[in-house]
Predict the 3D structure of the following.
Amino acid sequence: MKHSFFKISNLKKALVILFSILILLSVSILIVTEEIKAQPDNIQKSIADKFNEIKSQLEIQGITKNVKGTIGDYSKLFDGFSNIIITDDNGKIIYKANDGYISEKNKFSILIDPWKSNRSVTDIAYVVDSKNNIKYSTELDISRNTNKMKSQSAKNALSKVLFPKNIESDDSLGDKQITNSDGSTYVNSSDTNIIMNYEYIASKGLNLYSLYDSEHQFNNYYIFTNQLNGIIRWLIVCAFIFLSIFWILLPIWVYKDSKKQNLNSPKWSIISFFTNILGLGIYLILRPKKIKCLSCNKDVQDDWILCPYCGEKINIKDK
């Protein structure tokens, strides 16, 4: 058939288009994969930047409408699974974004290791109520100006139980059981899902706390990456489909072209089927070069003497 899809010229065009699509799909998969890898760092940077923005606004403005708006934006990073708590020097709650992680309505107190002079960041902090009962532990992530918490903790008798002076690491305390004043018990452990950021705003005498569940720390990240993973899956499916079509059409084109060149077409089609692009490259290198017949403008091989189409002699200058 004159306009058959399996004409050599049509197959060649199809292969070029398929190969271009495969390159585009491969590049897209690589770009999306790199974007997924970068998301944890991007989200963590967003968390740190937004927390620093709240701190800076508090230092300059105090608790204003703008600050509350920034706190709302910060909370959206965790899809609501967070809380911003602002207290005065005595632990009285001045402002809170919601009621999560608060053990008492009007007060929020933290105990950290006051004896660690060689580190600015303490790994574990304990939330206690006004009766010195331990409510839960948190892991400090962003933590600066902790001297305020250290001085308060040093005055608390419970800190001597939680953080003995001669113990260098919280982990070395083991799972020690602490009995609270109300008779409840708490196992002193470093295992916690709650992350806390802290900053002391000395100019305003304010303690800024951010607490969130680590399982929801990258909630938006998980939503976004799940979408990206879905895109990758579709890209891979499309790439597989186009690669399969390319893999089938390539040996067909090689067969037809090698037959036209009076070469061993079954051999070359089998080679190209199993080696694909590699086999095609070898075939194109070994394939006889083409020149144009000046009489009929048809493609002829450079080792022919007479043109098989018009019968004219192929001149040396044509080659």
Observations:
- The first strand starts at residue 82 and ends at 87.
- The first helix runs from residue 8 to 61.
- Confidence is low (pLDDT under 50) at residues 169-173.
